[in-house]
Amino acid sequence: MEESRHIPVLVDEVIDSLKWLKGGIYVDSTLGEGGHAQRILEAILPGGLLIGIDQDVQAVKRARENLKKYKENLLVFERNFSEIGTILESLRIKEVDGILFDLGLSSLQLQDAHRGFSFQKDGPLDMRMSENMKLTAGYLLNTLSVDELVEIISKYGEERWARRIARIVVESRRRRPLETTFELVRIIKNAIPRSAWPIKIHVATRTFQALRIAVNDELTVLEKTLPQAARFLKKGARICIISYHSLEDRIVKNFFREYKKQGLKAVFPKPVTPTRRELQMNPRSRSAKLRAGEMC
Ligand SMILES: C[S@@+](CC[C@H](N)C(=O)[O-])C[C@H]1O[C@@H](n2cnc3c(N)ncnc32)[C@H](O)[C@@H]1O
Predict the structure, then answer these.
(1) What are the tens digits of pLDDT across the range 218-228?
(2) I need a labelling partner for 261 at 20 to 30 A (CA). Which of 40, 146, 171, 279 fits?
(3) Are residues 210 and 222 in the same domain?
(4) Do 208 and 224 belong together in one domain?
């Protein structure tokens, strides 16, 4: 598998916003390959503790390897971030100085054809971030009704051609179950008239995003986790969240609105987005939005 290391997004902005305290306790809830984690560790040393969480066994392996020189100050958990409360309680940690969520997928996940996340690589229709997830994208595509597929593709992908895509999926699986990402890409291309293909994104982007969100129950998990995480912010502590699409960002925005009453003050009036320089160096950062809050 040809691959390049994940380039952390908005990393300087995250480091600036987390308001560094040497020797503090921080949580990286989406460890990935450890790009942000490395910068956090460099900022808190000497002393300090970073708790890293990722539900993907491969990510955890890679992060442990990439961060091995910091192992005295790092604890890694292969868990869903919805368990942040249980993890901190198991460590008898009552409050932390900062928490980061860098949502979505890492390059490692996207580049591995076997994971089925990419419409540019042929692989099985899997899309699970963790082997603990029960359903694969293939299972959903081969078993749900047209209406259920429309619900997923339109709600989580905001795809206006959802019904045509769902109908062709169901017609096609009558002949033979769908097995690969390229089969799905072909169906999407047939379902959407050429003249309606989006210009800035691949024609399959929205449907792939929708299936990934459904398989990993991403939005429900995020909605439930943010309030849990907020409970552990000490006075003056900060929470940083990088989202990559409007559905995630809406949840983050609502979270900040609701937690204003509990003393969570937005650090920036508007979300921070990558500079032109970052966009040139890392086009994958293009949809990123960073929001940060400080517990007062
Ligand atoms: C964009 S990557 C993070 C990259 C990381 N900041 C870096 O610099 O290498 C997102 C990571 O979050 C993980 N992830 C997404 N949702 C998760 C969840 N609910 N629980 C735990 N990990 C999750 C994914 O497996 C992925 O490795």
Answers:
(1) 999 999 999 99
(2) 40
(3) no
(4) no
What is the DSSP code (8-state) at residue 154? H
The ligand 1 atom at the shortest distance from the C-alpha of residue 38 is: 8
Domain boundary (216, 241, 275) is at 216
Q: Taking 50 as the threshold, does the pLDDT of residue 186 lie above it?
A: yes
193, 216, 239 - which closes a domain: 216
Contact between residue 107 and residue 284 where contact means Cβ atoms under 8 Å apart? yes
Same domain (yes/no): 284, 223: yes
- Does the beta carbon of 115 lie inside 6 Å of ligand 1? no
Task: Please tell me whether residues 229 and 209 are part of one structural domain.
Answer: no
Q: Is 8 in the pocket of ligand 1 (CB under 6 A)?
A: yes
143 pLDDT band (50/70/90 cuts)?
Answer: very high
With a 6 Å cutoff on the Cβ, whether 52 touches ligand 1 is no
pTM of the model: 0.96
pLDDT in tens, 235-267: 999 999 999 999 999 999 999 999 999 999 999
Instruction: Tell me how crowded residue 221 is: count the other CB atoms within 10 A of its CB.
Output: 15
Q: What CATH number should be reported for the domain holding residue 235?
A: 3.40.50.150
pLDDT per position as a tens digit, 38-53 = 999 999 999 999 999 9
Of 97, 106, 105, 101, nearest to 50 by C-alpha is 97
pLDDT at 3: 53
Residue 21 banded pLDDT, cuts 50, 70, 90? confident
Pocket flag, ligand 1, residue 6 (CB < 6 Å): yes
Q: Write the CA distances from 284 to 32, 94, 228, 290, integer angstroms.
A: 15, 36, 29, 14
Q: Is residue 54 part of a domain?
A: yes
| Secondary-structure percent of the chain, ordered helix, strand, coil, rounded to 5 | 50, 15, 35
Q: What integer pLDDT is reported at residue 2 of this predicted model?
A: 45
Whose C-alpha lies nearest to ligand 1, atom 25?
56
